[in-house]
Amino acid sequence: MRIIVTSLFVEDQDKALQFYTETLGFVKKQDVPAGEFRWITLVSPDDQDGTELVLEPNDNPAAKEYQTKIFDQGIPATMFGVVDVREAFQRLSKHGVRFTMEPTEMGEVTIAVFDDTCGNLIQLAQK
């Protein structure tokens, strides 16, 4: 068994698609109509046959409440692995990404947390 798809609630699918592809560098894999929304998935440019990230609309009140509450508590919605957190921090900061936690060593892992502009905090991790 392996994870093939995971979801991330977003406030605006178009804005999220732009941020996750143009700013973060993910690759759009699927973008198909799904009722009033779209089924949008992204993959890592380094593993285009790997796990897909669904940009899930938070139209459901329970999803919106969950997203808002974990954001307000400073809890990242998900984590992305990077080779060098400090390099990613510098590169993304130059693109205007707002970090809520600068690169911080925590044992064998270095992490940083940023606001994805779509209602989520995202954690970067370097082992």
Automatic annotation (TrEMBL):
Q: Which SUPFAM superfamilies match?
A: Glyoxalase/Bleomycin resistance protein/Dihydroxybiphenyl dioxygenase
Record-linked CDD domains: VOC_like (cd07263)
Gene3D superfamilies on file: 2,3-Dihydroxybiphenyl 1,2-Dioxygenase, domain 1
Q: Which residues form the VOC domain?
A: 2-127
Name of the protein: VOC family protein
Q: What is the lineage of its organism?
A: Bacteria, Bacillati, Bacillota, Bacilli, Bacillales
